[in-house]
Write a structure and sequence with these properties.
By secondary structure, the protein is an alpha/beta fold. The protein folds into two domains: about 325 residues, 3-Layer(aba) Sandwich (Rossmann fold), CATH 3.40.50.720; about 40 residues, no CATH class. The strands form five sheets. A seven-stranded parallel beta sheet has the order 3-2-1-4-5-9-14, with helices on both faces. Helix 1 links the parallel strand 1 and strand 2. Helix 2 crosses helix 4 and helix 4 runs parallel beside helix 6. The longest helix is centred in the N-terminal third of the chain and has 21 residues. It is globular and about 60 Å long. It binds uridine-diphosphate-N-acetylglucosamine. Uridine-diphosphate-N-acetylglucosamine binds next to strand 10, helix 7 and strand 11.
Length: about 375
């Protein structure tokens, strides 16, 4: 019998979860992972080599009630990370995404709620994608706005920036706080909103103190390179390593908030440990916008690549233009603040990528979107 606290990590073999496991193990926790080893993410459905040997891995879905009972046995904390994460893919695999992300979470919560012994702490991985567009301000008339998606006619005219509804001038992106109303624009982000609200409501009802962390764009080593629906930094690095140019949607000047995985997992641990912070939604980003073009250029420079990024001038259906985190609430409640620069984070991703042989599947992912009329 161990006196170490056990943390159950659902989706425990994935990119974020495996880093969380390392972080928790280094701090004296015992880690149990529950993961279905989806072949799209884990080639051959095998346990990934990067998962620390001390992690007890249970293979199966979060909706397997028998397995869940076993997984929850003696657990102090739960990090609920299991999800299918391709935003574009969710727009044509609607039923599969909703089953994996919402229905499976429903079963998970039902099992949890009926147990006599419940975990002391829980966190659920939510996503900035539920905001839709971030917050904006018009520099000309000073109006704040939380705009909806850009109209189809505007995108067809290749006018990419959000326009002020008052004076039709371009709006400037502002940091997005948790108080901005959700406006999910993809099946994936609708699923994430549901997961977040279900975990918070049921955590409260069954007295399992829970926090929902809205992850911004996590990047770093162990991103699933064989998965064409992985994040943009890994897609670009994979292409460059195969001598091909990164493909930029729109004009490449759309921005995201990239948070390095090592800092994100520290934030997850804090949210579990801080008993004075419960039933909160918290942004988990760096608070800094970076354009997709800047990501491509920094990677191309780091690889000494002769091929530059290629601007497609096409758009991905449901994509947002800009969103970066207002970290005021997270800093105040958790005392959490990122310190790494984007360049330091990229260096860690690159050092790892050099040990890998990534296949470039980015074209296949874009072709799938085109086939489903999800680009324009
Ligand atoms: C990503 C995650 C999502 C997570 C969210 C917040 C993935 C697949 N999705 O969504 O799970 O909840 O961040 O953390 O990791 N782009 C290109 N060329 C490409 C691919 C993408 O220009 O080849 C652009 C997109 O148009 C978009 C930006 O890069 O503007 C980011 O795209 P992506 O990495 O897919 O992430 P999100 O959609 O932000």
């Amino acid at each position: 019998m161990t006196d170490k606290k056990i943390v159950l990590v659902t989706g425990g073999a994935g990119f974020i979860a495996s880093h969380l496991a390392d972080h928790l193990l280094a701090r004296g926790y015992k880690v149990r992972a529950l993961d279905s080893l989806e072949p799209q993410v884990h080639p051959g459905g095998k346990r990934p080599g990067y998962l620390d040997a001390r992690v007890e891995l249970l293979v199966g879905r979060v909706s397997d009630r028998g397995l869940l009972e076993k997984a929850l046995d003696g657990v102090w904390g739960v990090a609920h990370l299991a999800s299918a994460v391709g935003v574009g893919q969710s727009m044509y695999e609607i039923a599969r995404y909703t089953e994996l992300n919402v229905q499976d979470t429903a079963v998970f919560l039902e099992v949890l709620s009926r147990r006599r012994e419940k975990p002391a702490r829980m966190m659920v991985a939510s996503s900035m994608s539920l905001y839709g567009e971030g917050l904006y301000r018009c520099p000309a008339c000073g109006a704040d706005d939380a705009p909806r998606l850009r109209p189809a006619e505007q995108l067809k005219a290749r006018k990419w920036e959000l326009l002020c509804p008052g004076c039709w001038g371009p709006m400037e992106p502002r940091p997005t706080p948790e108080t901005k109303l959700p406006y999910p624009t993809s099946v994936y982000s609708i699923n994430k909103r549901d997961q977040e609200e279900m975990c918070l409501a049921l955590g409260r009802a069954y007295k399992v103190p829970t926090n929902a962390l809205r992850f911004f764009n996590a990047f770093g080593s162990r991103q699933a390179l064989s998965n064409p629906y992985t994040g943009v930094a890994a897609i670009f690095a994979g292409r460059l390593m195969n001598g091909r140019e990164p493909l930029l949607f729109e004009d490449g000047l759309q921005s995201r908030d990239f948070i390095h995985i090592s800092e994100l997992v520290a934030g997850i641990r804090l949210s579990l440990e801080r008993e004075d912070v419960s039933y909160e939604t918290l942004n988990m980003g760096s608070g800094r916008p970076t354009s997709v073009l800047a990501v491509a250029e920094a990677l191309a420079a780091a690889f000494g690549s002769t091929v530059g990024p290629k601007v497609l001038g096409e758009f991905r259906e449901g994509d947002t233009r800009h969103c970066f985190a207002d970290m005021t609430k997270t800093e105040r409640l958790l005392g959490f603040k990122t310190k790494m620069s984007f360049a330091e984070g990229l260096a860690e991703l690159l050092a790892w990528m050099r040990t890998q042989k990534p296949e470039d599947k980015g074209d296949a992912a874009i072709e799938e979107l085109r086939r489903h009329n999800l680009t324009g």
